[in-house]
Structures are given as C-alpha cells and as structure tokens.
Specification:
CATH class: Alpha Beta
Order of helices and strands: EHEHEHEHEHEHHHEHH
CATH architecture: 3-Layer(aba) Sandwich
Shape: globular
CATH topology: Rossmann fold
Strand order of the largest sheet: 3-2-1-4-5-6-7
Helix content: 55-70%
Strand content: 5-15%
Number of strands: 7
Low-confidence stretches: 1-8
C-alpha cells in the first residue's frame, strides 16, 4: 500500500435499484454502477437474465431481483426484499429505466398497445417509486427517471412512445418538487439514439400494429412508415453515443453532490431539446417533416 490510504470507489457500497436491467441500457448501467462500488439490485423479469448479469458482474456487488413493473404484487415483493436486505441503510438510488417502445401511426395503434405503453413506461414507474420511497427517504437518496429526447418533442410515428415520455417528464417534475422537502432528489436522464437490442423489438411491434390495422388505413402510411423505421435504425447505428455514455451520466447523478434536474446524453437529444424551446410550432413541424418524409 506504500503508506497510502486506498481511495474509496464512488459508490461506497450504497444500494441502488436499476429496473429493466435484462438488456440494453439498463444492463450496461447496472454493471457499471456495480463496478463503481454500488450494491446494485438489478431488476429483471426472467431468472436466466439475472443469472447472466450476476456472472458478468463477477465481484459480488450485483443482486438480481425479479420485478415486473406492471405487476403490483411483483413490485411489492421486490420492494420488500430490498427493504430487508438494505436494513437501516435505506436505498440510495432508484433508476427507473424499464420501458418499451410502441411505434406506429397513431391511427394504427390499438388501444391495448397504448395502454401497455403507458402502463409500462408511466404507471409502472410510479408504482416502483411509490413502493421504494420509504427506504429512499431513509437514505435521503435519489430517483433517476430515464426518458429520451422524445420527452421534449413528439415525432410522427412515435406518438404512443412520446406520450409516455412526456408523461414521465411531468411525473419527474412533480416528484422533484414534492420530494425535495423530504431530502430525496429526482432527476431526468434523456438519452438520444443509441444502438441497443430495443430497435429490433421496435420494428417487430411496429409491424404487428400495422398488420392489425384496417387495410385501407395501413396503406395510407405503410411506405413512409417503413422508410421511417429504416431511417431510425440507421440513425441509431451511426450514433456516436454509446450505452456507456448513458451509464456514465446515471453514475454522475448518483455521485455528484447536487444533481441537476435534467441531463441529456448525446448531441441529438440536446439538439431536439433546443429546437423544441426556440422554434415556433410551424417551423418545428417543417423540420420534423424533413426527417420523417
């Protein structure tokens, strides 16, 4: 040791729950936080996903927890387990990352799919937050709500997803204001386009929605929508933003002394936010037409 004190890792063993940790951004985030010294409860829906995560973590600071954010009993069971394992320490961080993306022209989105979108990305996230607020208050911890650039601008063919992201942004603003007197900080992290397995799922859900729409209605949108899906996926493939950039931003929120209300990850997320603030609606509509037609 050469007489020097070992420098503590940023997490200091503090407990954090990351939902939606089975794949994509959540998986990378859970592994990075565990490597940074946090004790990570990784929310997964399948036991096999949890086993793979635990193997990849290797250092024993990651504990898989089965949780389906749309199932109240599952959320309650996960909260009870985390409460028991953290004991008097409480929960330092909750990263509400779990989510799905329904992409289709709004005329073609079945009501059941819209309910699923909102139940997963909005209602489920609030349910998890409510269940874990007692240990979060105990630790005077932090909530990180993951939205996207579409929490600032609603893009054609992503109306259902944007509706959920706008709603989650609103929930975050209210929670930040309501929980501040209780010592709990609430922050939004908005990642832009990042290549993850979600893009394959988006295309599958999109084509299912189109297949279920009346033929004459689907025909009105099909060609432009297929072009949009291909464009979107290509943008993600070419994006310089990586899952590690997102994970680094979440780690910053959980370790900085005073986190800001909102962090945007990627040039596209920052650009869309600026355009939403400065452009009048007509000009913004023209800009969005240029990238969706």
């Amino acid at each position: 040791m050469n007489g020097r004190r070992r420098r503590a890792t940023p997490g200091h063993g503090r407990a954090v729950l990351v939902t939606g940790a089975s794949s994509g951004l959540g998986r990378v985030c859970a592994l990075r936080l565990a490597a940074g010294g946090f004790h990570v409860f990784a929310g997964v829906r399948q036991e096999t996903d949890g086993e793979r995560l635990a193997q990849d973590a290797a250092h024993g600071r990651l504990t898989p927890v089965r949780v389906d954010v749309t199932d109240e009993k599952s959320v309650a069971a996960a909260a009870e387990r985390i409460g028991e394992e953290t004991g008097g320490r409480g929960l330092w961080g909750l990263v509400n990352n779990a989510g799905i993306c329904v992409s289709a022209p709004l005329e073609c989105v079945p009501p059941a799919q819209l309910r699923r979108q909102l139940d997963t990305n909005v209602v489920g996230q609030l349910a998890v937050t409510q269940a874990l607020l007692p240990p979060l208050r105990q630790a005077r911890g932090r909530v990180v709500n993951v939205t996207s650039g579409l929490g600032s601008v609603a893009i054609p063919f992503l109306g259902a997803y944007a509706s959920a992201q706008f709603a989650k942004e609103a929930l975050t603003d209210v929670l930040r204001r309501e929980l501040r007197p209780h010592g709990v900080a609430v922050t939004v992290v908005q990642p832009g386009a990042i290549m993850t397995p979600i893009w394959g799922k988006v295309s599958d859900v999109a084509r299912d929605a189109m297949a279920g729409a009346p033929g004459q209605v689907a025909a009105l949108y099909r060609d432009k929508f297929e072009q949009f899906l291909a464009y979107n996926e290509q943008q993600a493939k070419e994006s310089p933003t990586r899952p590690e950039d997102f994970a680094r931003a979440v780690g910053h929120v959980l370790t900085v002394r005073r986190p800001k209300a909102r962090y945007r990850v990627g040039a596209d997320a920052r650009r869309v936010s600026v355009l939403a603030r400065v452009l009048p609606d007509a000009a913004l509509d023209r800009y969005l037409r240029s990238i969706t037609e």
